[in-house]
Amino acid sequence: MAQPQVNQQARPWDPKFTHADRERWVCIYPAYINSKKTVKEGRRIPKEKCVDNPLYTEIRDVCLSAGLIVGVENKTYCRELEHKDVKYRGRIRVQLKNEDGSIKDPKFPTRDSIMLYVGETIPKLKTRQGAGASSQSNTQQQQGAKGQKKKGRKGK
C-alpha cells in the first residue's frame, strides 16, 4: 500500500534536524533523469537508464508505488533554461533514512539507487506506453498526407 504524500512547508535550515525531517530528505528533479539533458545541463545517471522528458508527477507516482515517503515542492531546477515553463516545475523529496540515521528501505540505500529505479520504471507506466503507440499512428497519418495533391490555382 502506498504511503501518503507529505504536504509540509520547508523551514529554514537548522543543524538539529534529524533524518526524518523533510529538509534532510533527498531531492530529485526531473532533469536528473532526463535523457535529453547532458551532464552539464544536470543529468545525474547514465543516458541509457534515463527517460525522455520525465514529469514530476511520474517520479512521484513511481516513488509512492515503491512504498517511499514522498513530498512534492513547487520548485524549478536552477540549470533549467526555461524555468518559467510549467512542465519543468516540480521537485520531489524522498525520505531515505529513519530518524536514527539507518536506511529506511534496503532496496534504496542511496539517492542514485532511487534515480536508477525511477529511470527503469517510468517507461513501464501506462501513460508512457499509450503515448508511444499514438505517436506511431500520428507519423503514419502524416506520411499519408504528404502524397495528396493541393487544390487551387497553380502559382498562388
UniProtKB/TrEMBL annotation:
Residues covered by region (Disordered): 126-156
Residue stretches of biased makeup (Basic residues): 147-156
SUPFAM superfamilies (UniProt xref): SRP19
Coiled-coil regions listed: none
Segments of skewed composition (Low complexity): 129-146
InterPro entries attached to this UniProt entry: Signal_recog_particle_SRP19, SRP19-like_sf
Single GO MF annotation: 7S RNA binding
Primary localisation category: cytoplasm
Keyword Manganese in record: no
GO biological process: SRP-dependent cotranslational protein targeting to membrane, signal sequence recognition
Keywords for the protein's UniProt record, in alphabetical order: Cytoplasm, Nucleus, Ribonucleoprotein, RNA-binding, Signal recognition particle
Gene Ontology CC entries for this record: nucleolus; signal recognition particle, endoplasmic reticulum targeting
Subcellular location(s) per record: Cytoplasm; Nucleus, Nucleolus
Function: Component of the signal recognition particle (SRP) complex, a ribonucleoprotein complex that mediates the cotranslational targeting of secretory and membrane proteins to the endoplasmic reticulum (ER). Binds directly to 7SL RNA. Mediates binding of SRP54 to the SRP complex.
PANTHER family in alphabetical order: SIGNAL RECOGNITION PARTICLE 19 KD PROTEIN, SIGNAL RECOGNITION PARTICLE 19 KDA PROTEIN
Family: Belongs to the SRP19 family.
Protein name, UniProt field: Signal recognition particle 19 kDa protein
Natural source organism: Dreissena polymorpha
